[in-house]
Structure formats: C-alpha cells, structure tokens
Amino acid sequence: MRSLKSKSSMALLIAILPLASACHHNSDREEETHIASSQPATSSVSDSRTGLERQNEASSRYIEAELKDWRPPDGLQPPPATIRVSSIDLEGSWLGRTGMDTASMVISRRNDGTFDVNFSTSGCLGGWRLKRTATYKDGILELDRPVQEYCPITFRRLYTIRANGTELLLPETSVADLMQDRDADGNFNPGSIGIRFYTYGRREQRMRSRNPYLNVIDPNPTDD
C-alpha cells in the first residue's frame, strides 16, 4: 500500500481494514478513494448532512476528477449482432449487482431526444453519485463523460442487448467478460453469473428476482 500522509489517515485505514477484507474491489483504488473522501468539508453555514453523505459527496468529487482523462482500453469489441437490440425504451431505473457492491442508473428522456442519466454506486465503505447526459442511436447509449462503479468498472458507452429474453444494458468494458459466460451453443445459461455481474437490468425485474445477488434493497431507489 502507498505511504499515508498523516497519522489521522493511518487511523482511518486501521479502522476500516476489517470491513475492507470483506469487499471485492481493487485495494489501491479503495485506499485512494477513501483517503480522499475522509477530508473534512468546510462550510460557514449549518450543515445538516450526515457523515456518510459528506463522505459520499467527497468521493463523488474525487471520482469526477479521476475520470477526467479516462479513455477506453484499446481493442474493445462490441457484442455480437445476435444479442444486440437497435432500439428499446430506456426510461426508468436500471440496476447492476456485483456481489457486495451495487450500481444503478435512472434514465429519463429530454425534450430534445437526449437523456439524463443519474448514476449511483456503493459498497461496504461508501459510494458516489454522478450526473450525465447521453445520446442513444443504433443500440448504443453514449454518455457525455465516463462513470465508474465501486467494484471498479469504468465505461462511457453501453450497448442495448437481449439475453434469455430480457433487455439489458451492457457496458463497453464488460463485453468480453459477459461473452465468456455462454455455453457451447452460444447461449446464456439461466441465472448466468455474467448477466448478473456485468449488465444492468430493469429495476422492477431484478427486485422481483429470487436470486440472492439481486433480491436486495436498492440503496438509492430514486437517485434524485
């Protein structure tokens, strides 16, 4: 781990280590994010926010700065045409699950045909929210700036696909991982781990699921 700049940061790290051992994400990213989010907020007016809310807002600012120069890795491939869908109704709440972490997007259409996307992600040590606009054409939802999940998975583009009869959103950086979860005939098995972990499904469908990875309370049900 990188050296810490103060004794208070060291105390914070010691306090969160028991929790961190239960999380499934990059440890270097965790340390950078939560050291940044531990910095006290400065305000001359009364602040009614909770400590967690202040921490999450600080994390949001930190992630926004970190994503400023992000570019997608070379060699990314789109999903096969056999599962892509050129047009679906995007409006509503979409959920993704990665074990102990969660991410969601609330998508609403603007009058000009573009979309507002309220992105939220969280895990056992906090989370952040990011606001984006997007365009949708030929089955590709293109955000104006990238977002990053808590796990972390970073992306700017999502493909609309259909797997096992269900419409899903597939981040550009998760295509290869999802494709590895098909059987010999190229089909996805029922209850596919790849579908659960690498795609976003409609909130109402995933909240009804009996799958233990999906049937949990959405921590940000409105994302407003």
Low-confidence spans: pLDDT under 50, at least 5 residues?
1-45, 212-224
Order of helices and strands: HHHEEEEEEEHHEH
Task: State the major sheet.
Answer: 8 strands, antiparallel
What's the structural domain tally? 2
Spatially, the strands of the biggest sheet line up as 7-6-5-4-3-2-1-8
Fraction of residues in H or I helices: 25-40%
DSSP strand tally: 8
Overall geometric form:
globular
Mean pLDDT: 77
Task: Indicate the CATH architecture of the largest domain.
Answer: Beta Barrel
The CATH first-level class of the largest domain comes to Mainly Beta
Number of helices: 6
For the terminal residues, how far apart are their CA atoms? Answer: 36 Å
Class inferred from helices and paired strands: alpha+beta
Question: What percentage of the residues does DSSP assign to strands (E)?
Answer: 25-35%
CATH fold node name of the largest domain: Lipocalin
Give me the Rg, rounded: 18 Å
